[in-house]
Design a protein that fits this description.
Layout lengths: L5 H11 L19 E3 H8 L3 H10 L5 E3 L2 E5 H15 L1
Antiparallel strand pairs: 1-3, 2-3
Helix pairs in contact: 2-3
Length: 90
């Protein structure tokens, strides 16, 4: 066990009073958030199966776009779908 002398205590006090300011990066990207979601992500968010999401896309109730091999549902399309479904429920 080490016993601190008065010199150690003074040095510790000065260190604890030091303010550290974060350095901002020179170039920052704007944070956009998610613009689109995959079928699995939509299904998980809504609490339904991916097959149900695919069926709603095929029925034309939920708009989707293809990005390469992936099928994506735009965020605004998902919001419109939820609003339409809540209006239909009454």
């Amino acid at each position: 066990m080490r016993i601190l002398n008065t010199m150690d205590i003074d040095a510790t006090a000065n260190i604890s009073q030091t303010v550290i300011t974060p350095v901002k990066p020179k170039h920052t990207r704007p944070k956009l958030g998610r613009l689109a979601f995959g079928i699995g992500e939509c299904a998980e968010a809504l609490g339904v199966s991916p097959g149900f999401i695919r069926l709603e896309i095929l029925r034309g109730k939920l708009a989707a776009v293809r990005a390469g091999r992936r099928v994506l549902v735009k965020k605004d399309s998902l919001e419109k779908y939820l609003a339409a479904e809540s209006m239909a429920d009454g």
